[in-house]
């Protein structure tokens, strides 16, 4: 069962520091770009993942082709993908032992979420951190004690 309760989401967003954003876009008008920029302003390190843009820069960060290519461990993988494209990425998140899997609003993969949870990952599904952070009153990382 995904961790969609407010107290669970708060715990995740207050403990996570580094996020791999899968489906990152270089286009400022795309939701993934807006969310990446917002999370950076909140103090999170956001590493963009998109095979089409691998090696390029988005918002000052190098883009990687997939989760297996990341140069360092991340605390969370956030998926901005069509639901039918998430299974392989979920399997990579499991392989990489990424603690949290976050599926954006509209990205619903119940069997993939169950697989990730069975492997020990915490899963949030059909939510957006850009909406949850202000709703839960979570302060930017630099302002936390």
Sheet having the most strands: 5 strands, parallel
The geometry reads as globular
Please identify which CATH superfamily we are dealing with: NAD(P)-binding Rossmann-like Domain
At the fold tier of CATH, the topology name is: Rossmann fold
With strands numbered from the N-terminus, the spatial order across the biggest sheet is 2-1-5-6-7
| Second rung of CATH, namely the architecture | 3-Layer(aba) Sandwich
Mean pLDDT: 96
Beta-strand percentage? 15-25%
Number of helices: 5
Unreliable spans? none
Number of separate strands: 7
What is the rounded distance between the termini? 31 Å
Give the CATH level 1 class.
Answer: Alpha Beta
> Could you say how many structural domains there are in total?
1
The radius of gyration is: 14 Å
The sequence of SSEs as H and E is: HEHEEEEHEHEH
Helix content: 25-40%
Class from secondary-structure proportions: alpha/beta
């Amino acid at each position: 069962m995904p961790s969609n309760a407010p107290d669970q989401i708060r715990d995740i967003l207050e403990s996570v520091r580094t996020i791999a954003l899968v489906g990152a876009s270089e286009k400022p008008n795309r939701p993934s770009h807006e969310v990446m920029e917002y999370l950076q302003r909140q103090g999170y390190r956001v590493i963009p993942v998109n095979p089409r843009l691998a090696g390029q820069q988005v918002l000052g960060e190098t883009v990687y082709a997939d989760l297996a290519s990341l140069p360092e461990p991340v605390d969370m993988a956030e998926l901005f993908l069509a639901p039918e494209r998430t299974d392989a990425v979920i399997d990579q998140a499991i392989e990489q032992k990424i603690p949290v899997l976050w599926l954006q609003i509209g990205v619903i993969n119940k069997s993939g979420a169950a697989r990730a949870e069975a492997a020990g990952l915490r899963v949030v599904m059909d939510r957006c951190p850009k909406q949850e952070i202000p709703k839960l009153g979570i302060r930017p990382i630099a302002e936390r004690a």
